[in-house]
Amino acid sequence: MAGRGQGSCWVCNADVDAEDNYCSNCGAQLLRMDAGFQILRAPLRADTRTPIGLFLAIVGAIVGTLSYFMAIVPMLALGLASLLIGLMVLYLPSSDSVVARIAAESSLSSLCNIERLLEDLDLDERGIYIPVSGPGVAPLVFVPLALTSSTKKPPLGLNASRRIFVSVGKNPEDRGVLLDSPGAGILSSLERSLGLDLSRVGLADLQGILDSGLRSIGIGKITSVRQEDTKNEVRIEMQLTALIDLDTRLRDWAPRLSQYIGTPVVSALAGALSKASAKYVKLRGAALDRANRKVSVSLQLID
Amino acid sequence: MSNTNLFFISYSVLAFSTVFALSLFPNVDIDVYLALFAIEFFIASGLASPFSLFERRKRIVVEVIMLAVFAAILIQRIAQILLEARL
């Protein structure tokens, strides 16, 4: 991965210059740290927490001890409050743990591979989530070569297929790519944490179920699920507490995947809707408001 | 603002406001302050929820300590009332 100055190629590890866009050795496009790896600077960052926590704890301990011997209860309480907050600031970690970041980094390469596949095949149609049932089972995504009567609603049996390139009709254009959805892991974890199968949940209960599921796996919370009957469109809004960096980077590095199939979080929402409604679901659009950590997803139910 | 920061800020505001408000009343024991700190911890947690999985595991330890402190104060107060009633 090339950063500022001299770097190395993320594919073959050959030396590359900061100005290079492609690796001279293997020809891979170089991913720039300054383009997609900007971490949002929070007002109370992990590295500033330690001195703040230490200060509060020490001041609290001194004030508390002195007040105890002087028998001044309000000052003792002030010292205790300060000590308590200081210890919590020191003990509770920041949300971007190393393990979580490594896990997100690991999935990035496989998602970039899907992006390249979509690019090489020049697929310009949006992915269709095929409804499926069963706990922990996530819908597969069918990305058609062209939108025809056959590819619009691919057979449900495709969910059992292990192939990538599939044909769903007699015509040459009735073909497409069948992929595991990027949000399959999230959806399976969500179902496991709740101990239920989303295909047994109605659309009316989806908001509450999704909200508690996403909260329990620590990804975020659902703020609204609205269905617009006229357009067969469902709008889901949620607030992220994790995976925000992965979502942001994927939108830069894998625009086709983000737009046509969805980032892992968006894909999990599409998969959940497909399971709950038992209908084919197509992603219409997904917007990320990074400052407020909000994701707005528009999904289309295909009858 | 991340949820962890929101938690720290809301908890600090609640805790220091409690100290200020209770200092206006005479003869308030320290256990009243402590019980309120424990309750406020759960309120701030609820307001800043949800936390990530990694944060939640750590927070559970603090939650258990807070609950233990609150329960100890409550038991002590109940025992005190019962003993006074008996006498």
Present the secondary structure layout.
The complex is a heterodimer of chains A (303) and B (87).
Chain A: E1 7-8, E2 15-16, H1 33-36, H2 46-70, H3 73-91, H4 98-120, E3 128-129, E4 140-144, H5 149-152, E5 165-167, E6 175-180, H6 184-194, H7 203-216, E7 220-228, E8 233-240, H8 244-253, H9 255-260, H10 264-277, E9 280-289, E10 294-302
Antiparallel strand pairs in A: 1-2, 3-4, 3-9, 4-6, 5-6, 7-8, 8-10, 9-10
Helix pairs in contact in A: 2-3, 6-7, 6-10
Chain B: H1 3-23, H2 30-48, H3 53-86
What are its keywords?
heterodimer; A: 303 residues; alpha+beta; 3 domains; eight-stranded antiparallel β-sheet; two-stranded antiparallel sheet; 43% helix; B: 87 residues; mainly alpha; flat
Structural class by secondary-structure content of chain A: alpha+beta
Unreliable spans of chain A: 33-43
Main beta sheet strand tally, sense and closure of chain B? none
Mean pLDDT of chain A comes to: 83
Shape label of chain A: globular
Mean of residue pLDDT values of chain B: 86
Number of domains of chain A: 3
Order of helices and strands of chain A: EEHHHHEEHEEHHEEHHHEE
Distance between the termini of chain A: 44 Å
Termini separation of chain B (Å)? 55 Å
> Structural class given helices, strands, pairing of chain B?
mainly alpha
Quaternary structure of the protein: heterodimer
